[in-house]
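Thread: Newbie trying to understand structure tokens

Hi all, I'm a second-year student working on a class project, and my supervisor (Dr. K.) asked me to get a predicted structure for one chain before our next meeting. I've only ever worked with sequences, so writing a 3D structure as a token string is new to me. If someone could post the tokens and maybe explain what I'm looking at, I'd be very grateful. Here's the chain:
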Amino acid sequence: MNQTAIFWPVIAQAVLTFIAYFVMYSRRMQAVKSGAADLRTFKRRNAEPEASETAANNILSQFELPVLFYVVCLSLYVTNGASYVALLLAWLFVASRYVHAYVHMTSNRLLYRRPIFIIGFVAVILMWLWFALHLLAVV
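---
Reply by user tm_fold:
Sure, no problem. This is what the structure looks like when written as tokens:
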């Protein structure tokens, strides 16, 4: 397998972060134009309208669990451990993050967000386990 293939899900995850920034910016500008907020509202995020707040919170979540994803992908690449299993898990993680972000920035229903988050969480755990097994020369 081409080791650089592990970077396609990484790029897709980065694109999701850029999309979340765009959504937040767009929602904040809508709030300012409609009079629901002024620019000072966003200085401290203490009274941000819900629509832009959920987008801002989603951006924060893109720098939580995905950090572990980025590190394991880079680690797999550096140690020549990117495999089809790792790639499948990476795409599963990214797909779960896209669905999670969509739910988070639309309905924000925890009933849907929680199981989607767990799928991504387990995918990253399995990636780290796969990486450890690779270092032990088991896989």
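A couple of things are worth pointing out once you decode it. The chain has one domain: 3-135. The chain has a mean pLDDT of 96. Feel free to ask follow-ups in this thread.
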